[in-house]
């Protein structure tokens, strides 16, 4: 079984568009299936691929979930 956090990482690694990735991340947070700090840390390596090379993981998560 894949964890919800792993699913988001997999989606980011294949460069799912940011709008849909943000919806998935927001849904996980809203349903308490992931903690924001953990999700931000997991997504941090992908920020540059989404056009935010200097963003922290938390900034990238905020960008995805609050367009």
Description:
The protein is mainly alpha-helical. It has helices spanning 4-13, 18-30, 36-43, 57-65. Helix 1 runs antiparallel to helix 2 (18-30), helix 1 (4-13) runs parallel beside helix 3 and helix 2 (18-30) crosses helix 4 (57-65).
Brief description of this entry?
Helices cover 60% and strands 0% of the residues. The chain has 67 residues and is an all-alpha fold.
Order of helices and strands: HHHH
Per DSSP E runs of 2 or more residues, the count of β-strands stands at 0
Number of domains: 1
- Poorly predicted runs of 5 or more residues: none
Whole-number radius of gyration? 10 Å
How would you classify the helix and strand content by structural class? mainly alpha
Distance between the termini: 30 Å
Q: What is the residue-mean pLDDT, rounded to a whole number?
A: 95
Discrete helix count: 4
Shape: globular
What fraction strand?
A: under 5%
Bin the helical content: 55-70%
Largest sheet: none
Jot down its keywords.
mainly alpha
């Amino acid at each position: 079984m894949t964890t919800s956090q792993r699913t988001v990482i997999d989606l980011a690694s294949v460069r799912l568009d940011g709008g849909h990735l943000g919806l998935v991340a927001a849904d996980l947070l809203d349903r308490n299936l992931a903690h924001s700090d953990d999700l931000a840390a997991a997504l941090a390596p992908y920020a540059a691929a989404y056009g935010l090379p200097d963003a922290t993981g938390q900034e990238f998560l905020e960008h995805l979930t609050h367009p």
